[in-house]
Amino acid sequence: MEIKITLPMLGRMFMLPASVVDNYLKITDGDYLKALLCIYCQGQPVVDTASISQLSGVPEERVREALIHFSKLGVLQAEGLTGAQNTPIQPQAPAQPVSPPAPQPSADDLKLIGGAEAIKGTNRRLEKLSRVRYSNTDIDEMISRDETLRDLKDRIEGITGRGLNHAAIGDIVEMYDHMQLPAAGIILLAEFCVGTYGKRSTAYMLTVAQDWFEEGITDYDQIERKIIDLTELSSYESRLKAIFEFQGSTTKKQREFFERWRAWGFDVETVRAAYEENMNLKNKFTLPYINKILEGWHMKGITNAEQAKAELQNKPKNDSKGGISTQEYDEFARNIDFDKLTT
Question: Given pLDDT bands bounded at 50, 70 and 90, which one contains residue 183?
Fold first, then answer.
C-alpha cells in the first residue's frame, strides 16, 4: 500500500547516516536505535549517558552498549570506551546475585544425542558439537538461580513476540550454558534470525548458533562481525539478482558464485560489466561463463568496473588461437548469400 505523506519543516531537525537504515537497521536492537537517535538529536561532541538514558527511556548501561555497537559499525567514533590498554570494553551482562552456584546437571540428567560427550568447563571447540537436553527441573532451577539467563529468556520472548515453553527455553539454555555463548551475542543472533529471515523458532536459532560455533564463532565480536558480513552479502545478492532479473530465492550454487565474486573484491558494477560481456558473446545468460570472465579479471588484478571496461576495449578481436571470434563468425554466417553459392 502506498500512502502519501508530507514532511513539514517544523522545529529542529538533524541528520542521520543512511548506513544505519541501509545496512544495520535489521540487526540492531530497538534500544540501541533509540539511544542513537537521541545522541544525534543532541549533536554534542560529549555524550552524557545518563542524559541520553533519561531522554530515550533506555537504561544507561544499554546506552553504553549502543555506543560500543555503533562505534564498531563505524556509524560514530566514541572515545572513553577503552581500557588502559586501549582494548574495547565489551557489553557487560547484568550483575549476578550473590548466591550459591547453581548445581550442574548430573550425567543421568543430560540426555546426549548420538552418544557424544557434553562440553565441560572451557572446552568450547569440538570437531562436531554435541547436543544436550536439559530436564524441565534443571531448566527451572537454572532460570531461578541465574539472573542473566532469566533476563535472556525474557529478551528472547520480547524479540519473538511469544512465550517460550520448556523445549524453547532448553534451546536457549543450550546456547548459553552448553555452548557458553555470551547472552548479548545470543540476543544479537535472535534479532538477526527474526529481522532478516523472519524465523522466530528457537530451534532455528540454535541451528544457526551451532553452525557458527563450528566455524569458531563463539564471542560477541565474532557474532556481530558474522551478522554484518551476512547482511552485506544479502545486500550484494539482492543487487545482483536485480541485474540478472532473478525471481525468488537464490540457489545454493548461485550463492556460491556470488560469495566467490565478493571474496575476489568485485563490486556490483564490475559484475554488471561481466554480465554485459556474457550477453554480447553468448547472447544468453549463463553464470558459469560470467564466473569465467570474472576469474580472468581476478587473475589479471582487475578490481573495478573502469579497469574491466578498459580491458574489454583493448581485447583483440581474434581469439588466442588466431582464428576469428564467435561474434565475428556469427556475423559472417548471417551475411552469407546462399543464392550465389554453387555446388
Answer: very high
